[in-house]
Specification:
It contains five helices and 13 strands. By secondary structure, the protein is of the alpha+beta class.
Length: 268
């Protein structure tokens, strides 16, 4: 793993240095020459593409022929707004366990793709964790009161405010990770910040082995009333965190996320 990481960093450094040199030369561009972005791809023949085009392509989701680009830059643990179901197949679980054990991993943090107004924990077997942290659409989170939970707190998202994008003005999160100085093992993972309704929060330790519900799907669907249509809808929710005595649950579809709070007694 270390060898691969060093090679990847060397590749990035070389491409960035070439990009910087390209920009400093101020060489006039041939009017007949195309830009890298018009064709993309590795081994692009434009003057800029030959110097740093491979790094540009490495950050893209697809290749010019629309096939999947294998990249650690553009990847997602989510599909359709929820954690990928294939992560929990027996075969994939075995592969992930082997990966975490081989590389002495306990936690993988990533950006992309948007997961609401706070990081979205995914608990794997063996108390291993994946933590997507992209909150770029936090201003679009919908707070809902599910019909099954009479004690869930009524909250209202504050929306995008004056921001021109989906991030909104209030949501912010920080993930705090503590390590054992002797073994370098992760001791705790806590998240704190401000949710999209303006309320401050701090989660309990994700690695608390006594709580197996966090980071996993709720075993039943919940019903809520769509605020736009007034219709009753059923959705699968995910247990994201425990905040004081409440559980924060979320459902996702695309980049849209619905949040609700459940009293810990009603979730059990």
């Amino acid at each position: 793993f270390t060898e691969w990481l060093n090679l990847l960093n060397d590749f990035a450094s070389e491409q960035i240095a070439s990009w910087q040199q390209f920009g400093e030369t101020n060489k006039s561009r041939n009017a007949r020459e195309y830009f890298w972005a018009t064709k993309g791809g590795y081994s692009n023949k434009s003057s800029g593409g030959q110097l740093f085009g491979n790094l540009l392509q490495y950050g893209m989701n697809t290749l010019p022929d629309k096939s999947k680009n294998q990249s650690v830059v553009y990847n997602s643990w989510m599909k359709g707004g929820m954690p990928r179901k294939d992560l929990f197949t027996p075969n994939e679980q075995m592969k992930l366990e082997e990966l975490f054990a081989k590389e002495s991993l306990q936690l993988i943090l990533s950006g992309h793709q948007p997961v609401g107004d706070s990081p979205w924990p995914i608990q794997l077997s063996g108390n291993n964790w994946i933590l997507p942290c992209d909150t770029s659409f936090s201003g679009d989170v919908n707070w809902t009161k599910t019909l099954q939970c009479k004690s869930s707190t009524k909250k209202i998202g504050l929306g995008r405010g004056s921001r021109p994008n989906g991030r909104g003005e209030v949501a912010v999160s920080e993930t705090l990770i503590s390590f054992c100085q002797r073994t370098s093992k992760v001791k705790s993972v806590n998240i704190h910040g401000c949710l999209s309704d303006g309320s401050k929060y701090e989660t309990n330790n994700l690695l608390d082995v006594d709580d197996k519900q966090i980071g996993r799907p709720l075993l039943r669907e919940l019903s809520y009333t769509d605020k736009d249509t007034g219709e009753r809808r059923d959705m699968e929710f995910w247990v994201r965190a425990k905040i004081d005595q409440d559980y924060l649950l979320s459902a996702g579809k695309g980049f849209r996320v619905w949040n609700t709070l459940f009293d810990h007694n009603e979730l059990d």
